[in-house]
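Predicting holo structure, S-adenosylmethionine bound.
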Amino acid sequence: MEDHLPQSVRVERRPVTEHESRHANGPDWDRYADEYQATHGAFLGDAGFVWGPEGHTEDELGILGDVRDLDVLEVGSGAGQCSRWVRTRGGRGFGLDLSHRQLQHSLRLDEETGVPVPSVRGTATDLPFADGSFDVVFCSFGALQFVSDIDVAVAEAARVLRPGGRFAFSVTHPTRWMFPDDPGEAGLTATQSYWDRTPYVEVDDATGVVSYVEHHRTLGDWVRLLHGHGFTLADLVEPEWPEDHDRVWGGWSRTRGLLTPGTAIFVALAATR
Ligand SMILES: C[S@@+](CC[C@H](N)C(=O)[O-])C[C@H]1O[C@@H](n2cnc3c(N)ncnc32)[C@H](O)[C@@H]1O
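Done. C-alpha coordinates:
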Protein backbone atom coordinates (compact mmCIF):
# COMPACT_ATOMS: atom_id res chain seq x y z
CA MET A 1 0.00 0.00 0.00
CA GLU A 2 1.07 3.54 -0.59
CA ASP A 3 2.81 5.89 1.79
CA HIS A 4 1.13 8.95 0.25
CA LEU A 5 -2.59 9.02 0.93
CA PRO A 6 -4.12 12.45 0.15
CA GLN A 7 -6.98 13.53 2.40
CA SER A 8 -9.50 13.63 -0.46
CA VAL A 9 -9.13 9.89 -1.01
CA ARG A 10 -11.21 7.11 0.57
CA VAL A 11 -10.15 3.49 0.89
CA GLU A 12 -12.40 0.61 -0.16
CA ARG A 13 -12.22 -3.11 -0.72
CA ARG A 14 -13.95 -4.11 -3.93
CA PRO A 15 -13.36 -5.96 -7.21
CA VAL A 16 -11.62 -3.98 -9.97
CA THR A 17 -10.82 -4.95 -13.55
CA GLU A 18 -7.42 -4.90 -15.24
CA HIS A 19 -8.54 -1.82 -17.18
CA GLU A 20 -9.46 0.03 -13.97
CA SER A 21 -6.24 -1.09 -12.26
CA ARG A 22 -4.04 0.13 -15.07
CA HIS A 23 -5.92 3.38 -15.60
CA ALA A 24 -5.63 4.13 -11.90
CA ASN A 25 -2.05 3.05 -11.32
CA GLY A 26 -0.40 4.63 -14.38
CA PRO A 27 -1.52 8.20 -13.57
CA ASP A 28 -1.03 7.53 -9.85
CA TRP A 29 2.63 6.61 -10.39
CA ASP A 30 2.98 9.66 -12.68
CA ARG A 31 1.75 11.88 -9.83
CA TYR A 32 3.79 10.10 -7.17
CA ALA A 33 7.06 9.54 -9.09
CA ASP A 34 8.83 12.78 -8.07
CA GLU A 35 8.06 12.24 -4.37
CA TYR A 36 8.92 8.52 -4.62
CA GLN A 37 12.33 9.18 -6.15
CA ALA A 38 13.05 12.09 -3.76
CA THR A 39 12.13 9.95 -0.73
CA HIS A 40 13.58 6.57 -1.69
CA GLY A 41 16.14 7.32 -4.45
CA ALA A 42 19.17 7.51 -2.15
CA PHE A 43 18.17 4.25 -0.40
CA LEU A 44 17.71 2.47 -3.76
CA GLY A 45 20.96 3.83 -5.24
CA ASP A 46 21.09 5.19 -8.79
CA ALA A 47 22.66 1.94 -10.00
CA GLY A 48 21.70 -0.14 -6.97
CA PHE A 49 19.60 -3.28 -6.72
CA VAL A 50 17.46 -3.42 -3.58
CA TRP A 51 14.85 -6.20 -3.32
CA GLY A 52 12.60 -4.49 -0.75
CA PRO A 53 12.24 -2.09 2.17
CA GLU A 54 14.41 -4.39 4.35
CA GLY A 55 17.31 -3.16 2.19
CA HIS A 56 18.71 -6.52 1.05
CA THR A 57 20.63 -6.09 -2.18
CA GLU A 58 21.15 -8.43 -5.11
CA ASP A 59 24.86 -8.43 -4.23
CA GLU A 60 23.90 -10.00 -0.88
CA LEU A 61 21.14 -12.35 -2.01
CA GLY A 62 22.31 -13.46 -5.48
CA ILE A 63 18.74 -14.19 -6.57
CA LEU A 64 19.47 -13.71 -10.28
CA GLY A 65 22.87 -15.42 -10.32
CA ASP A 66 25.56 -14.24 -12.73
CA VAL A 67 23.91 -11.87 -15.24
CA ARG A 68 26.99 -11.31 -17.40
CA ASP A 69 26.09 -11.51 -21.12
CA LEU A 70 22.45 -12.25 -20.32
CA ASP A 71 19.36 -10.47 -21.67
CA VAL A 72 17.48 -9.26 -18.60
CA LEU A 73 14.04 -7.61 -18.49
CA GLU A 74 12.81 -5.66 -15.47
CA VAL A 75 9.02 -5.33 -15.36
CA GLY A 76 7.85 -2.29 -13.40
CA SER A 77 11.36 -0.85 -13.62
CA GLY A 78 10.58 2.64 -12.29
CA ALA A 79 13.74 4.73 -12.57
CA GLY A 80 15.68 1.64 -13.67
CA GLN A 81 18.01 1.42 -10.68
CA CYS A 82 18.05 -2.40 -10.65
CA SER A 83 18.51 -2.68 -14.41
CA ARG A 84 21.35 -0.18 -14.19
CA TRP A 85 22.98 -2.48 -11.61
CA VAL A 86 22.52 -5.36 -14.09
CA ARG A 87 24.32 -3.29 -16.72
CA THR A 88 27.23 -2.59 -14.34
CA ARG A 89 27.55 -6.38 -13.90
CA GLY A 90 27.83 -7.02 -17.64
CA GLY A 91 24.18 -7.96 -18.33
CA ARG A 92 21.98 -6.41 -20.99
CA GLY A 93 19.32 -4.89 -18.71
CA PHE A 94 16.11 -3.48 -20.16
CA GLY A 95 13.27 -1.69 -18.37
CA LEU A 96 9.50 -1.60 -18.83
CA ASP A 97 7.14 0.55 -16.81
CA LEU A 98 3.58 1.84 -16.97
CA SER A 99 4.45 5.34 -15.75
CA HIS A 100 5.79 7.98 -18.10
CA ARG A 101 7.10 10.04 -15.18
CA GLN A 102 8.97 7.09 -13.67
CA LEU A 103 10.61 6.55 -17.06
CA GLN A 104 11.59 10.24 -17.19
CA HIS A 105 13.41 9.65 -13.89
CA SER A 106 15.08 6.66 -15.51
CA LEU A 107 16.33 8.90 -18.32
CA ARG A 108 17.59 11.40 -15.76
CA LEU A 109 19.57 8.69 -13.98
CA ASP A 110 20.87 7.38 -17.32
CA GLU A 111 22.43 10.78 -17.88
CA GLU A 112 23.65 11.30 -14.32
CA THR A 113 25.30 7.88 -14.04
CA GLY A 114 26.42 7.37 -17.64
CA VAL A 115 24.81 3.90 -17.49
CA PRO A 116 21.79 3.99 -19.80
CA VAL A 117 18.98 1.45 -19.45
CA PRO A 118 16.96 1.10 -22.67
CA SER A 119 13.37 1.27 -21.44
CA VAL A 120 9.88 1.20 -22.83
CA ARG A 121 6.47 2.30 -21.59
CA GLY A 122 4.13 -0.66 -21.36
CA THR A 123 2.27 -3.01 -19.09
CA ALA A 124 3.17 -6.33 -17.53
CA THR A 125 0.11 -7.92 -19.14
CA ASP A 126 1.18 -7.11 -22.72
CA LEU A 127 4.96 -7.23 -23.05
CA PRO A 128 6.11 -5.74 -26.37
CA PHE A 129 8.77 -8.39 -26.98
CA ALA A 130 9.04 -11.51 -29.12
CA ASP A 131 8.78 -14.97 -27.60
CA GLY A 132 12.03 -16.19 -26.02
CA SER A 133 13.77 -12.79 -25.90
CA PHE A 134 15.19 -12.91 -22.37
CA ASP A 135 17.25 -15.10 -20.06
CA VAL A 136 15.89 -13.39 -16.95
CA VAL A 137 12.68 -11.49 -16.16
CA PHE A 138 12.45 -9.83 -12.76
CA CYS A 139 10.43 -7.34 -10.73
CA SER A 140 11.52 -5.63 -7.54
CA PHE A 141 8.13 -4.64 -6.15
CA GLY A 142 7.31 -3.72 -9.73
CA ALA A 143 3.99 -4.26 -11.47
CA LEU A 144 2.77 -7.64 -10.19
CA GLN A 145 0.82 -6.51 -7.13
CA PHE A 146 -0.72 -3.71 -9.22
CA VAL A 147 -2.04 -6.05 -11.91
CA SER A 148 -5.53 -7.56 -11.85
CA ASP A 149 -4.95 -10.07 -14.69
CA ILE A 150 -2.08 -11.76 -12.90
CA ASP A 151 -2.59 -14.94 -14.92
CA VAL A 152 -1.87 -12.94 -18.09
CA ALA A 153 1.17 -11.21 -16.53
CA VAL A 154 2.74 -14.54 -15.50
CA ALA A 155 1.93 -16.00 -18.95
CA GLU A 156 3.68 -13.01 -20.53
CA ALA A 157 6.80 -13.53 -18.39
CA ALA A 158 6.83 -17.21 -19.43
CA ARG A 159 6.38 -16.31 -23.09
CA VAL A 160 9.29 -13.83 -23.33
CA LEU A 161 11.68 -16.10 -21.40
CA ARG A 162 13.98 -18.55 -23.12
CA PRO A 163 13.70 -22.22 -22.09
CA GLY A 164 15.08 -22.63 -18.57
CA GLY A 165 15.07 -18.84 -18.02
CA ARG A 166 14.63 -17.29 -14.60
CA PHE A 167 11.62 -15.34 -13.32
CA ALA A 168 12.24 -13.63 -9.97
CA PHE A 169 10.03 -11.10 -8.27
CA SER A 170 9.51 -9.45 -4.92
CA VAL A 171 6.07 -8.51 -3.63
CA THR A 172 4.62 -7.50 -0.29
CA HIS A 173 4.68 -10.71 1.75
CA PRO A 174 1.16 -12.18 1.41
CA THR A 175 0.78 -12.53 5.19
CA ARG A 176 0.93 -8.70 5.51
CA TRP A 177 -2.55 -8.51 3.94
CA MET A 178 -4.06 -9.53 7.29
CA PHE A 179 -2.67 -6.48 9.08
CA PRO A 180 -3.38 -2.73 8.92
CA ASP A 181 -0.76 -0.99 6.76
CA ASP A 182 0.70 0.76 9.79
CA PRO A 183 4.41 0.70 10.69
CA GLY A 184 3.64 0.97 14.41
CA GLU A 185 2.10 -1.35 17.03
CA ALA A 186 -1.30 -1.10 15.29
CA GLY A 187 0.25 -2.94 12.36
CA LEU A 188 0.82 -6.04 14.51
CA THR A 189 -2.79 -7.08 15.04
CA ALA A 190 -4.53 -9.07 12.33
CA THR A 191 -7.78 -7.38 11.34
CA GLN A 192 -8.80 -9.04 8.11
CA SER A 193 -8.76 -12.41 6.46
CA TYR A 194 -5.60 -13.62 4.74
CA TRP A 195 -7.87 -15.43 2.26
CA ASP A 196 -9.91 -12.36 1.28
CA ARG A 197 -8.53 -11.43 -2.15
CA THR A 198 -10.80 -8.38 -2.58
CA PRO A 199 -8.47 -5.64 -3.90
CA TYR A 200 -7.40 -2.57 -1.92
CA VAL A 201 -8.81 0.44 -3.77
CA GLU A 202 -8.36 4.17 -3.27
CA VAL A 203 -11.14 6.34 -4.68
CA ASP A 204 -11.03 10.09 -5.25
CA ASP A 205 -13.82 11.38 -3.02
CA ALA A 206 -14.70 14.31 -5.26
CA THR A 207 -14.87 12.44 -8.59
CA GLY A 208 -15.48 8.82 -7.58
CA VAL A 209 -12.60 7.83 -9.85
CA VAL A 210 -10.45 4.88 -8.78
CA SER A 211 -7.03 6.41 -8.16
CA TYR A 212 -4.93 3.47 -6.90
CA VAL A 213 -5.30 -0.31 -6.69
CA GLU A 214 -3.40 -3.19 -5.11
CA HIS A 215 -4.11 -6.88 -5.51
CA HIS A 216 -3.50 -9.69 -3.06
CA ARG A 217 -2.52 -13.29 -3.75
CA THR A 218 -1.87 -15.88 -1.08
CA LEU A 219 1.32 -17.92 -1.03
CA GLY A 220 -0.62 -20.85 -2.49
CA ASP A 221 -2.03 -18.64 -5.26
CA TRP A 222 1.50 -17.72 -6.33
CA VAL A 223 2.68 -21.32 -6.31
CA ARG A 224 -0.30 -22.42 -8.44
CA LEU A 225 0.13 -19.48 -10.83
CA LEU A 226 3.78 -20.28 -11.44
CA HIS A 227 3.17 -24.00 -11.77
CA GLY A 228 0.26 -23.32 -14.15
CA HIS A 229 2.58 -21.52 -16.54
CA GLY A 230 5.23 -24.22 -16.59
CA PHE A 231 7.55 -22.72 -13.98
CA THR A 232 9.36 -24.69 -11.31
CA LEU A 233 9.56 -22.83 -8.02
CA ALA A 234 13.26 -22.80 -7.16
CA ASP A 235 13.10 -20.69 -3.99
CA LEU A 236 10.94 -18.47 -1.83
CA VAL A 237 13.14 -15.97 -0.03
CA GLU A 238 11.71 -14.17 3.02
CA PRO A 239 14.35 -11.57 3.92
CA GLU A 240 14.77 -10.99 7.64
CA TRP A 241 14.86 -7.48 9.07
CA PRO A 242 18.55 -6.57 9.53
CA GLU A 243 19.65 -5.83 13.12
CA ASP A 244 21.07 -2.42 12.20
CA HIS A 245 18.20 -1.31 9.93
CA ASP A 246 15.81 1.36 11.22
CA ARG A 247 14.19 2.85 8.13
CA VAL A 248 10.40 3.24 7.85
CA TRP A 249 8.92 2.78 4.36
CA GLY A 250 5.13 2.93 4.34
CA GLY A 251 4.00 0.00 6.50
CA TRP A 252 7.51 -1.48 6.73
CA SER A 253 9.37 -0.76 9.94
CA ARG A 254 11.70 -2.30 12.49
CA THR A 255 8.74 -2.75 14.89
CA ARG A 256 6.96 -5.03 12.44
CA GLY A 257 9.98 -6.37 10.57
CA LEU A 258 11.46 -8.07 13.64
CA LEU A 259 8.23 -10.06 14.08
CA THR A 260 6.63 -10.65 10.67
CA PRO A 261 7.98 -10.97 7.11
CA GLY A 262 7.36 -7.89 4.93
CA THR A 263 8.71 -9.11 1.60
CA ALA A 264 8.48 -12.35 -0.36
CA ILE A 265 10.87 -13.03 -3.24
CA PHE A 266 9.77 -15.83 -5.57
CA VAL A 267 12.40 -17.45 -7.77
CA ALA A 268 11.10 -19.65 -10.59
CA LEU A 269 12.59 -21.42 -13.58
CA ALA A 270 10.87 -21.65 -16.95
CA ALA A 271 10.31 -25.05 -18.51
CA THR A 272 13.23 -26.27 -20.62
CA ARG A 273 10.74 -27.45 -23.35
C1 LIG B 1 7.09 0.26 -6.15
S1 LIG B 1 7.57 0.76 -7.79
C2 LIG B 1 8.99 -0.22 -8.00
C3 LIG B 1 9.91 0.35 -9.04
C4 LIG B 1 11.36 -0.07 -8.88
N1 LIG B 1 11.52 -1.49 -8.97
C5 LIG B 1 11.86 0.44 -7.55
O1 LIG B 1 12.29 -0.37 -6.72
O2 LIG B 1 11.82 1.65 -7.35
C6 LIG B 1 6.35 -0.04 -8.79
C7 LIG B 1 6.47 0.29 -10.28
O3 LIG B 1 5.57 -0.57 -11.02
C8 LIG B 1 5.01 0.20 -12.06
N2 LIG B 1 3.77 -0.45 -12.51
C9 LIG B 1 2.57 -0.48 -11.90
N3 LIG B 1 1.69 -1.20 -12.62
C10 LIG B 1 2.37 -1.65 -13.71
C11 LIG B 1 2.02 -2.46 -14.83
N4 LIG B 1 0.78 -2.92 -14.99
N5 LIG B 1 2.97 -2.74 -15.77
C12 LIG B 1 4.23 -2.24 -15.64
N6 LIG B 1 4.62 -1.46 -14.59
C13 LIG B 1 3.70 -1.18 -13.65
C14 LIG B 1 4.81 1.58 -11.47
O4 LIG B 1 4.68 2.56 -12.47
C15 LIG B 1 6.07 1.73 -10.62
O5 LIG B 1 7.12 2.37 -11.33
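Helices lie at 18-44, 58-61, 81-88, 100-113, 150-160, 219-228, 254-257.
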